[in-house]
Write a structure and sequence with these properties.
heterodimer; A: alpha/beta; Glutaredoxin; Ubiquitin-like (UB roll); 5-stranded mixed sheet; 24 helices; 14% strand; B: alpha+beta; 4 helices; binds flavin mononucleotide
Chain lengths: 596, 119
C-alpha cells in the first residue's frame, strides 16, 4: 500500500531518550481519533542524524522535518499538515544534510527507513553516468569549499574530528593516516583508492562505485589537496567492467568540467586520477601488495614498517584508503567533522555498509549507523530468517572474520564490540546462517578460499593454511581423528602470529571462531561421524524404514547395487557400498528411505 | 574575485538547468536500476521498454533516468515512479511485461499497481 501521508518518527537512540516513543502512541491515537486509517501510515526510522533537535518527525509527501516535537504538537501536525496539507512553518526545521536525499525517496520503506545512508547517499537516487546529476546534489561543493577557504591542515583536522576509521577492514583512524602522509616532505606523493574488493560475496564497493562514481573522485581530490599530492590512482579489479566504465566516464566528465586536472575551479590546485586494473588476486587488496601490483611487479606483500604513508608507490609517501572511506569524505567536509562524529558510537563513528546475505528474507546492501545491533540488522532490516528456521550464527568479516552464535545477536556493530565478541568488522560481509548450515563446512569454505589465495611468499601462510584445509577436509569426510581440533587450534594460532601480512594473520579466524563457539559440532563430526545440518555428504547414512513394501524400485536405480532384499520384504542398504547419491530416496514412492 | 565556491554554484545552476531541459519537471519521473546486479536480473530490457515507449510510442510527460543499486538484491530489477507531491512508488521484480503494464496502468492512467510494490 502506498499511503497518502507517511509520518516518520525517528527511532534513533538520541530521539528515544527525548521521548520519541511517546510520540508514536500519540500519533496513533490521533490518527485513529480522526478516522484517517489507511490514508496515513506511521513509520519508525533509524537515526536521522539530527539528535540535537530530537525528537524528530518527518511528514511526507513534502519531506517536512519537525524538530523538538512535543506530545502537544501532535494534534496540530495531524490536523494542519496531514489532513489539510499545510505544513507548519513554526515547527519545521531546515536541515540539509547530504544523506537526507536518499531518505526522501526510500525512507518510508521498512528496509530502508532503519538505515542511514551517508556513503551510499546517492546510490539509487542519481544517474551515475551523468555529472549533472552529481552536481545537482551538491557534488564537488566540498572540493570548492576547501579550495575557497580551508587550508590543507583544516581539511585534515575535519577528518580527524569526524573520527572516521578505515572501512577496508583494519579500521585505522583515517585522519591520522592523512596527517602522517601530509607530514612527509616529498615533492611527489600519491593518493590511492583501494577498489580491489576481494572478499568472496562482497559487493559493497562495486555498488558504491556503480551508483555514485564522482563521490570517490571528489574524496580523492580532497585528500590530494590536504596532503599535497597531484596524482590519484584507483586500483580496481578487471572483473568489475561496469564500475570501471562508469569511473572512466566520470573522470572524463570531471576533467571536461575543470574538476580534475589543471587549475581546478579556477584555483592553482592540480589533481588528476588514473585507473589501474587488477587481475583479481585477493592478496592484491593488501596495501603493500597492491602498490607492487601498480608498479608492474608481482603483487606480493612486504613487511611494514615502513608504512605506505612514509614509503609507498615508487617509494614515495602514499595515502591509501578504501572506496567506502572515500565516499564519506565529501560529507565530512560539507556537513562538518563534528556532525559526522555525532553518528555512531564513542569509538566507531559514522555508518558502515554491509552486504547482507545468506539465510535472511531481505538480502541486500545496507548502511547502518555504527552501534546498530546484529539483531536489528537481521530482523528489522533483513526481515528475519525465512521458512521459520532457527538462526544459528552470523558470519562477519568474510575470510578474515568469524562466526558469532545467537548469544551474540545483541552485539552492536562497531570495531571493538565485534572484535571482543570474537569476530571482526572487516570490509562488510554479513552472512546469516541457520540450522541447515554446517559450521565446519563454513569454516572449510573460507579456508579453501584463503588457502587458494595465499601468495606463497611466507611459509606459515602457504604451508599452514594447506595443512589446516586438509584436516578440515578429512573431518567433513568422516575421517577426523582424535586431536584434530587441538591441531587446528595450534596451527591456527601459529599462522596468525607468524604470517607476513593480514591474509595469513587472519586466515585461521573462521576456523578458530567456529571451534570456539561450535566445538560440539566439530566433536560430532569427529567422534560420532555426524553432521547435524545434513551438509557433509560423506557423513550421511541412508536407511530403509519399515514403511518399505519391497517394491524394488530403489534397487533398480541404485548405481552401485548397494540395496538388497527379497520381493515384498523390507530392503536394506549396505552403507559401505552406498555412495550417498540419494537416487533411492528420490525414487521411493512410500517415503521409506531416510537420511540420518 | 571569483572563488571556487562561486564557480561550483554556477556549475550547479547550469547542471540543474540541463536536467530540467531534459524534462525533469515532467509529471512523472521513472528511475530504472542499472547496476551490475540489476542488469544481471534483466533491467536492460526493462529500460528498453520505457525507452521505446517514449521514443517510438510517443509517451510524454515522463522523465526517464537510470540509477545505481539501492540495495534490494532479492527484488531486482527495481523501478521507481516519482510524482511531485506524492509519495514515491517503488516497484520490484519488474520484467518486460510488467514494465509495459506500468506504462499503461500507472504512467498513462495513474493507477498504482499495489502487488508489485516494495515496502
Ligand atoms: C589479504 C588482504 C586483502 C585486503 N583487501 C582489501 C580490499 O579488497 N579492499 C580494501 O579497501 N582493503 C583491503 N585490505 C586492507 C588494505 O590493506 C588497507 O588496510 C586498506 O585499503 C586501507 O584503507 P582504509 O584505511 O580506508 O580501510 C586488505 C588487506 C589484506 C591483508
Amino acid at each position: 500500500m502506498v499511503s497518502e501521508n507517511i509520518i516518520t518518527i525517528c527511532d534513533g537512540t538520541g530521539c528515544i531518550q527525548k521521548g520519541s516513543d511517546k510520540l508514536q502512541a500519540a500519533f496513533e491515537k490521533e490518527i485513529a481519533a480522526k478516522g484517517l486509517g489507511d490514508t496515513a501510515k506511521i513509520n519508525l526510522s533509524g537515526c536521522l542524524g539530527m539528535c540535537d533537535k530530537g525528537p524528530v518527525v518527518v511528514v511526507n509527501p513534502g519531506y517536512t522535518i519537525y524538530g523538538n516535537v512535543a506530545e502537544d504538537d501532535v494534534t496540530e501536525i495531524v490536523e494542519s499538515h496531514v489532513i489539510n496539507g499545510n505544513p507548519i512553518a513554526k515547527l519545521a526545521i531546515q536541515e540539509d544534510h547530504l544523506f537526507n536525499r536518499f531518505f526522501r525517496v526510500f525512507g518510508d520503506a521498512k528496509f530502508f527507513g532503519k538505515q542511514m545512508r551517508i556513503a551510499l547517499r546517492n546510490c539509487g537516487i542519481i544517474d551515475p553516468e551523468n555529472i549533472d546529476d552529481y552536481l545537482s546534489v551538491r557534488g564537488y561543493e566540498a572540493l570548492a569549499k576547501v579550495l575557497t577557504n580551508m587550508s590543507p591542515q583544516d581539511v585534515i583536522d575535519q577528518v580527524k574530528k569526524s573520527g572516521i576509521r578505515g572501512r577496508g577492514g583494519a579500521g585505522f583512524p583515517t585522519g591520522l593516516k592523512w596527517q602522517f602522509t601530509a607530514d612527509q616532505n616529498s615533492d611527489e606523493k600519491y593518493v590511492i583508492c583501494n577498489a580491489d574488493e576481494g572478499d568472496p560475496g562482497a559487493f559493497m564497493d562495486r555498488s558504491a562505485i556503480e551508483g555514485d562514481p564522482h563521490t570517490i573522485l571528489e574524496g580523492m581530490a580532497l585528500a590530494g589537496y590536504a596532503i599535497g599530492a597531484k596524482h590519484g590512482i584507483i586500483y580496481i579489479r578487471a572483473e568489475y567492467p561496469l564500475a570501471i566504465e562508469r569511473l572512466e566516464k566520470a573522470i572524463e566528465a570531471a576533467r571536461a568540467s575543470n574538476l580534475l586536472g589543471k587549475n581546478i575551479l579556477g584555483s592553482d590546485f592540480y589533481f588528476d586520477i588514473e585507473i589501474r586494473l587488477g587481475a583479481g588476486a585477493f592478496v592484491c587488496g593488501e596495501e603493500t601488495a597492491l602498490i607492487r601490483s601498480i608498479e608492474g611487479k608481482r603483487g606480493m606483500p612486504r613487511p611494514r614498517p615502513p608504512y605506505p604513508s612514509v614509503s609507498g608507490l615508487f617509494e614515495k609517501p602514499t595515502l591509501i584508503n578504501n572506496v567506502e572511506t572515500w565516499a564519506n569524505i565529501p560529507v565530512i567536509i560539507l556537513d562538518s567533522g563534528d556532525w559526522f562524529s555525532t553518528v555512531g558510537t564513542e569509538k566507531s563513528k559514522g555508518t558502515k555498509v554491509f552486504a547482507l546475505a545468506g539465510k535472511v528474507v531481505n538480502t541486500g546492501l545496507i548502511e547502518v549507523p555504527m552501534g546498530t545491533t546484529l539483531r536489528q540488522i537481521i530482523y528489522d532490516i533483513g526481515g528475519g530468517v525465512p521458512d521459520n528456521k532457527q538462526i544459528k550464527a552470523v558470519q562477519t568479516g568474510g575470510p578474515s572474520g568469524g562466526c558469532l552464535p545467537v548469544e551474540y545477536l545483541d552485539t552492536p556493530v562497531d570495531y571493538e564490540s565485534l572484535a571482543e565478541a570474537g569476530s571482526i568488522m572487516g570490509s562488510g560481509g554479513m552472512i546469516v546462517l541457520d540450522e541447515t548450515s554446517c559450521m565446519v563446512d563454513i569454516a572449510k569454505f573460507f579456508l579453501e578460499f584463503t588457502q587458494n589465495e595465499s601468495c606463497g611468499k611466507c611459509t606459515p601462510c602457504r604451508e599452514g593454511t594447506k595443512r589446516m584445509y586438509e584436516i578440515l577436509t578429512r573431518i567433513t569426510e568422516g575421517k577426523g581423528q582424535l586431536g584434530d581440533i587441538k591441531k587446528l587450534e595450534r596451527l591456527g594460532n601459529m599462522i596468525k602470529k607468524a604470517s607476513l601480512c593480514g591474509l595469513g594473520q587472519s586466515a585461521p579466524n573462521p576456523v578458530l571462531s567456529t571451534i570456539a563457539n561450535f566445538r560440539q559440532e566439530y566433536e560430532e563430526h569427529i567422534n560420532d561421524k555426524k553432521c547435524r545440518a545434513g551438509v557433509c555428504v560423506e557423513l550421511l547414512i541412508y536407511q530403509v524404514t519399515d514403511k518399505c513394501v519391497g517394491c524394488g524400485a530403489c534397487k533398480r536405480v541404485c548405481p552401485v547395487n548397494a540395496i538388497s532384499g527379497a520381493k515384498k520384504e523390507q530392503h536394506s542398504i549396505d552403507t559401505d557400498v552406498c555412495v550417498k547419491c540419494g537416487a533411492c530416496m528420490d525414487t521411493c514412492k512410500f517415503d521409506a528411505i531416510i537420511r540420518v | 574575485m571569483v572563488t571556487p565556491l562561486d564557480v561550483i554554484k554556477k556549475k550547479r545552476a547550469e547542471a540543474v538547468g540541463r536536467i530540467i531541459g531534459r524534462g525533469y519537471l515532467a509529471t512523472k519521473r521513472v528511475y530504472v536500476g542499472m547496476a551490475t546486479c540489476e542488469i544481471a536480473a534483466g533491467s536492460k530490457e526493462v529500460m528498453e521498454v520505457f525507452n521505446e515507449a517514449i521514443t517510438k510510442d510517443g509517451l510524454t510527460d515522463v522523465y526517464l533516468s537510470q540509477k545505481g543499486c539501492a540495495g534490494r538484491c532479492n527484488l531486482e530489477p527495481t523501478v521507481e515512479v516519482i510524482e511531485q507531491g506524492k509519495n514515491p512508488v517503488r516497484y520490484g521484480k519488474i520484467n518486460r511485461e510488467k514494465a509495459a503494464q506500468i506504462i499503461e496502468r500507472h504512467l498513462k492512467n495513474g493507477e498504482v499497481i499495489e502487488e508489485w510494490i516494495i515496502d
